[in-house]
Each structure stands twice: as C-alpha cells, then as structure tokens.
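sorry for the late reply, my laptop died twice this morning and i had to redo everyting from scratch. anyway the thing you sent over, i finally got around to it. pasting the sequence first so we're on the same page, its 564 residues, then the predicted structure underneath. double check i copied it right bc i was rushing
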Amino acid sequence: MQFLLRCMLKRSYSYPANIQIRNYRQFKETYRHVHQIENRRFLQSLESSEKIFRSPRPSLELPEISLSEYMFSRFSKFGNGKALVDDATGTVYTYSQLEDLSRKVGSFLYRKGLRKNDVICYYGTNNAEFCLLLLGCASVGVVLTTANPAYTSGELKRQMEHSGTRTLVTIPPLVTKAQQADISDIIVIGNVDNCQPFSDMLADDGRCFPTDITIDPHEDIVIMPYSSGTTGLPKGVMLSHYNVVSNLKQHQQAFSTTTDDTNYAVLPFYHIYGMVISMCGTLQDGGLLVITPGFHPEGFLKAIVNYKVTQLQIVPPILLFLTHHPAVDKYDLSPISNIVCGAAPLGEAITTEFMNKRNKIVKQDYGMTEASPMVALDYDSITVGSAGPLLADTEVKFIDLETGKSLGRNETGEVCVRGPQVMKGYRNNATATKEMIDAGGWLHTGDIGYMRDNECIVIADRLKELIKFKGQQVAPAELEDLLHKHPAVQDVVVIGMPDDRAGELPRAYVVLKPEISVHAHDLMKYVEQNVSDYKRLRGGIEFVKEIPKSPSGKSLRRVFKDQL
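ok and here's the structure:
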C-alpha cells in the first residue's frame, strides 16, 4: 500500500515518510488527506489573482467523526441535566437519556430492516422525539430527510419518491395525508389505529444495534433536507456527517451557549436552521431546549417568561411581531440575552426599531441549506444591516454578474462560498450540482452582497428566483408548472412581491389562451387547492399579453420585478 499510494500521488514530498499504512481504511484516509493538500496547492496557484476573503476567526480542528459520535461525546459531559422539554406534552429528557434512547431508535431501525444509506422521512411539527430520531438514524448510517408538515399529499409523495424513502415518521394529524401519498410504512409519534407507535422504538431492547457499521464522515450522508437552491423544483441537499459536525463547531466558536442557557425552539426542525443550529447547536453545549410545535403569539410570550428563556433564534416575521405587537408589552423579556435572526435578510430599519423599542440587541446570521446552513454570524460586535464576519475556515468571494471576475471590498456581486460546511451535492441531480458548485469548490449562492471594511458581509439582494414567504421557500417553477396545467393558461411567470411583514408574496403574471376567459379568483382558488398554504398567490394575479423571454427562452422575471 505504501508503494501504491506514492504511485497514485506521483508527488512524494506530500507523503509523510514515517507513516505506515496498515489497512485499507487508513490508506483511504491518508490518500484523501494528501489529495486535499495537493488540490489546495493547485487551486491556490489558480486563485493567486482572485480577490478571496477569508474568515478573521481562528482556524478550527474539525472532528472527522459521525454526527451521533460527536453529539454523544458532548452529552456525556452534562449528566442528568435537563436537555429537552416539550412545552406541548410536558415530556422531559435529560442528557444522560439521550444517547441511550437514540441507540434504541437505531437498534429498532436496524431490526426493522433499514440499513446504511437507506432513507427515512420525518413529516411533522416540532417535538422532543425528533432529536432521538435524528441521532438514532445517524448512529446506524440511515439518512434522514424532512418534509414540511404543510405539504399536501401530492407534494409529500413527490419527495418520498425522489428521496427513495422507505419509512415515514409523522404525527397523528398528518397520518391521513401520509396515507393519501401512498405510504404504507408509517410510524406515529402518538397513537393512531393500524400505525406503529414511536414508543416502540424507545422500548427496544437495543440488542440489534449494529457494531460493525463504518461511517465515512466525508462521504456518507446524514441528513437530506429539500431546497430549491437558486431555481427550479425542490432538490435533496446531501449533507455529510462532516458537513454538519463542522458547521456545529464553527457555530460553537462564534456563538456562546452554556449550561445556564435556555433556548426556545420556535423554528421548525424540518428546516435546516431549526434542526442544526437551534436544536443541535444548543445541545452540544449543555443548554436546555424548550420545544414548541409551532409559533403561537401568546404561547410564545408565555413560554419566554415561564422557562426564563435566554436565547432565541428567529426569523424576520417573528422579529416584526416582537417589535409591533401590543401583547409584547405585557411580558417580561428581560431574561433574553441573545437574539439571532436568520433565514432571510433583516433590514436596518426594523433592526434599529426593535433594538430601540425593546432595549435588546438582535444579531443577524447568513447561510443556506446547502451550507449546513451557516456561513456568517454577527455576534461579537453588532453591525446593523450586516450578517457579520465569516465563520472559521470559511471563504467568500463576490463575482461580477457580467464578467465573472472577483471583486474587491465594498463592490457588489454574487456571493460564492467555500468551506467544510458546503454540501456534497443534490441527490440524483448532477446538472444542478455542477451549476451550484464549480470546479474550484465554490458554492454559488445566488445572493448579491459585498464585504465591508470591517470584515462583515452584507447581503443586499438575491439573484435567485426563490421566493421567501415568512422564511418559507416557495419555488416559482413549482407554481408555474401547476398553473400551466390549467386549461385556460397559455404562459405564466411567478415572482416574489416585496412585503414588509411576510418578506415576499408569490404573484403570478398570466397569459390566457386565445378566446378563453377565466377570473383571477378562479385561478387563485385552483392554486390554493393544490399547494400548501404558504405557497398561495397572496400577491395576486395579473393578466398580461406576453411573458418577456431571453434569447434562450427563459422567462425574464426581472422585468416584472422592476415594475413593482
């Protein structure tokens, strides 16, 4: 193997002469390490003239272990301290219980016949059991994908088929929709006739937990949330164990959580932000995570007081609520010491208004599902309107939209990111992966921004066609495809209409077929009947004579955006 390694690399100066390769796994790891060194040197030679911004934070030693190994190693430090509290059910789990119960889930899945790289889906709202499911899957190499609980049966079926899901875990109110999606193997967190209860997992004797599974942190996928990326229909984002663990370590360095902190998990766990940053980010440092099924104004405020919440990870619509809703004045928010807002850009005006009115600091972060999800965080020093400095070991460049050349400070261009948190790619979609990640490993985010003199990144706009309604992703292509199926529609384009409260509202411009008429209300009703609530055309419908197109035939959404 020593000789084979040298022959494959053909650059012996990169190979540590004193290392003895004893088995294939060690050979593979050594080859990867040396290959990374050579690849980095090659890229650096190409990029010598590029303007690349690197994180001002110290570089980290990133563990090359599975997500479950990493989290279990953290849990062992916190003993019988409370880890999870489900506000809806009163269920409490301590840190000492989490590893044992997660392994029971892994044993149950293995007994059930699921093996490494098989896919299981969670379709539901937040609950404490989700954490056990995630870590149970990770411990035996099963991939967890998550589906928005607002999905219709048709939307759910599409994701199940595309992801190759074998088993679905859900909650009682969603069982009917799951069955309508032609899913037969359903496990329910609760009790529903003819469905296996999740409690069976927690009652497993653990004897089937496999001891011979080898997880390659760089290659093996741990979670696969769905995202539309910069355009098109939702795609399965393949995040490796290494991607997620690296991002947790990066976040840990930039954001301070202690065993005295309590975080209120109002963000949905099916979303990468809620799953990785809110949940795992809190648990890796021994904080208490209070879980709620969803955002309810009075319940949200009561929980902050009852649990003496110290940390909040929220999205702009919740910050608007905290700024303007009169009910907020009735509650004591003094225990809150950290508020971070993400998922969509936060304007300077609302940031300043909130801080002045509530006498609280709000910090902003920046990321995307394809980056596991965090890229930058404004924590140490507050720069209003900025997402702060890059996380450790993260690079960014801003490229000119016309020339593709990299730009200097305070010059606006498309944000491109590179780092250990960047996804492996999209499931079964090599074309979309190549469009998103170039040969140099740069993730083209579709966002427009620039780097300030103080090393803080500003996200100014979005190139991407994705619409963000209250932090939820709405793919224009999906709505256009649906409208194209209506017998009266000849052509259509959907854009996001700016809205102070929701961020953006989906709005359609429709060309009708000759000599066919239909009311806008009827088309809106048609859409409502076929999509989740957050995808509805709240921005309305306007009938037009034609949809402007580029020479390649692509609809020019920007023409309509410029008219708003």
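The longest helix spans residues 24-46.
thats about all i looked at so far, will dig more tmrw
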